From TrEMBL:
One of its GO terms (biological process) is L-arginine biosynthetic process. Homodimer. Keywords: Amino-acid biosynthesis, Aminotransferase, Arginine biosynthesis, Cytoplasm, Pyridoxal phosphate, Transferase. This is Acetylornithine aminotransferase.
């Protein structure tokens, strides 16, 4: 008989009832060191007092009003995002997938209003992940996600990841947009070199194609900059944000330049919940904390510490690990074993990690993880790797 919860996930046999910083406490009292952070979501850890205060203060006033009215909390968050990024405007969603949907619609509408309604081709890359809606799976194009769900939304062409020559051959003045994650998350913590991102920006400028970045996983301080593309010194036309921006509260956003967003006039898009007072009260507090230079400097310092220890771990277990990759606290351990086996071995050592494609184990701790917890994490990973070897 089918379970009451639709069984689309292979869940681990553990449930958590409480959290404190980088620790998640299971119903039987066992404390797990959480290096998954709800898949790169809990940027400030569990039960962060400042976020709890922001949420409860708002919860005692008003939760939801709909976008039929002014929402000061939403305006505040939009102001913060516009101030700190390339963007001129923001639309709030409840998830990364919804951000992908709007980004795609924005691209189409842009060319429609520019008098080129058949300019719809969006170039994407193998290994990408943009969500699970019909549009987002068509954009990613992987058989694993699309099988059985056709016919797929047309207008996407998938190129080999990071293959600039393939992009040069594919992009023309008929291309609508190029869509990519500066660091692929689900694809296995695969960063695109800064020089390649600059070249992609230049190719978009030459052809007029819009550059759409998906920073749902790599954004919001995860890489040690507020957004990953900042390392390359370029800006996109449209960007998808989610996960970390809500610190655990469902929230996403599409950020855009005025030029790209201009055709999205009243009536062209909407959401009942998107940008509601509760979500935006939390999102603004997250932004105030994470977008601070001193906070981001700490992320980079911790990243260096973590990386150094992980290099030692890789050297100690050459049969299990191949290397470390990623940026900031978006780190991946390329494995010689199945990452799912390591995740399982981690449960036995009370550490939570997340597998990814390309045989990679993802380490996505809260961005405010302590140095002691980083050391503890590496010690537990060391034991888990030894258990696998034994
Ligand atoms: C890069 C990227 N884009 C989009 C999404 C989809 O976001 P959500 O699961 O919030 O819909 C994800 C989720 O993992 C992601 O990593």
């Amino acid at each position: 008989m089918i379970s009451h919860v639709l069984p689309t996930y292979n869940r681990a046999p553990v449930a958590f009832e409480r959290g404190e910083g980088a620790w998640a406490i299971a119903t039987d009292g066992t404390r797990y060191l959480d290096l998954g952070a709800g898949i790169a979501v809990n940027v400030l850890g569990h039960a962060n007092p400042e976020l709890v205060a922001a949420l409860t203060e708002q919860a005692g006033r008003i939760w939801h009003v709909s976008n039929l009215y002014q929402i000061p909390q939403q305006e505040r968050l939009a102001d913060l995002l516009v101030e700190k990024t390339f963007a001129d405007t923001a639309f709030f969603t409840n998830s990364g997938t919804e951000a992908a949907e709007l980004a795609i619609k924005m691209v189409r509408r842009y060319w429609h209003d520019a008098g080129q309604p058949d300019r719809i081709e969006i170039l994407t890359f193998e290994g990408a992940f943009h969500g699970r809606s019909t549009g987002a799976i068509a954009a990613a194009g992987s058989e694993k996600m699309t099988a059985g769900f056709g016919p797929l939304m047309p207008g996407f062409r998938t190129l080999p990841w990071g293959d600039i020559e393939a992009l040069k051959a594919a992009i023309t003045d008929r291309t609508a947009a190029v869509l990519l994650e500066p660091i692929q998350g689900e694809g296995g913590i695969r960063p695109l070199p800064d020089a390649d991102l600059r070249e992609i920006r230049a190719l978009c400028d030459q052809t007029g194609a819009l550059l759409v970045l998906d920073e749902v996983q790599c954004g919001m301080g995860r890489t040690g900059r507020l957004f990953a593309h900042e390392y390359a010194g370029i800006t996109p036309d449209i960007m998808m944000v989610a996960k970390g921006i809500g610190g655990g509260f469902p929230l996403g956003a599409v950020l855009a330049t005025e030029k790209a967003a201009k055709p999205m006039i009243a009536g062209t898009h909407g959401s009942t919940y998107g940008g509601n007072p509760l979500a935006c009260a939390v999102g603004s507090r997250v932004m105030e904390i994470v977008a601070d230079d001193a906070f981001l400097a700490e992320v980079n310092r911790k990243s260096a510490l973590f990386r150094q220890k992980l290099e030692g771990l890789v050297a100690a277990h050459p049969q299990v690990f191949e290397g470390v990759r990623g940026q900031g606290l978006m780190l991946g351990l390329k494995c010689r074993v199945a990452p799912a086996d390591l995740v399982k071995a981690g449960y036995a050592r009370q550490i939570l990690t997340v597998p990814a494609a390309d045989n990679t184990l993802r380490l996505l701790p809260p961005l405010n993880i302590s140095d002691e917890d980083i050391a503890e994490a590496v010690s537990r990973l060391d034991k888990a790797a030894a258990d696998l070897n034994a």
